[in-house]
Amino acid sequence: MLRGKPRRQARDAADRPAQGADPLDPAQEDRVRAVLSLGGVPYGELQDGVQQVRLRLLERAAKGDGAPRDVSAWAAVVASNWAMDWHRARRRQERLGERLAALRPERPEEDGAESRVLSLAVAQGLDELPDGQRQVVVLRFYADLPVRDIAAELGIPEGTVKSRLHTAVRMLRTRLHEEEVV
């Protein structure tokens, strides 16, 4: 019994990459990149996929699990799964975009380029607002919640919600006029 334990520890130590060493050799990395590419992941996303496979291998070693019997095969399976996850996320994002577009009222008189410029300016303006003001603006105008519900959900007085909305809208309006967007 004692005799097998040191052998197992030695074998486990041999399975783990040296600290600081890359767990994927160049051939394995090329194979992972090929699996991702054949899985439909765009070129610009391939390095992220390779890094995710590398991370999974490092996490496995950190948990104390030994290296897989065939690291190359294991990495290829993980890369294939990551490619499927990438496609699921993209489809989910597309569906979300479609739902948001369906919520937007049609305005045929609106020029698409002007609308994009306005949307970008508003988004940048929201980014510059303090967190509390941004939060109430999003809840009021994008989630379409009444002031009373916002106050209840955030646990703040209605007057505070109204004050934050007033200040935020004034700041956004000033920004849009300064940039001559409206």
In short:
The chain has 182 residues and is mainly alpha-helical. The chain is 73% helix and 0% strand. About 7% of the residues have low confidence.
Provide a descriptive summary of the structure in words:
With 182 residues, this protein is an all-alpha fold. The protein folds into 2 domains: 23-102, no CATH class; 112-178, Winged helix-like DNA-binding domain superfamily/Winged helix DNA-binding domain (Arc Repressor Mutant, subunit A, Orthogonal Bundle), CATH 1.10.10.10. The chain has 8 helices and no strands. Helix 2 runs parallel beside helix 4 (71-103) and helix 7 crosses helix 8 (158-178). The radius of gyration is 26 Å and the shape is elongated. The termini are far apart. The model is unreliable at 5-17 (pLDDT under 50). Keywords: DNA-binding, Sigma factor, Transcription, Transcription regulation. One of its GO terms (molecular function) is sigma factor activity. Belongs to the sigma-70 factor family. ECF subfamily.
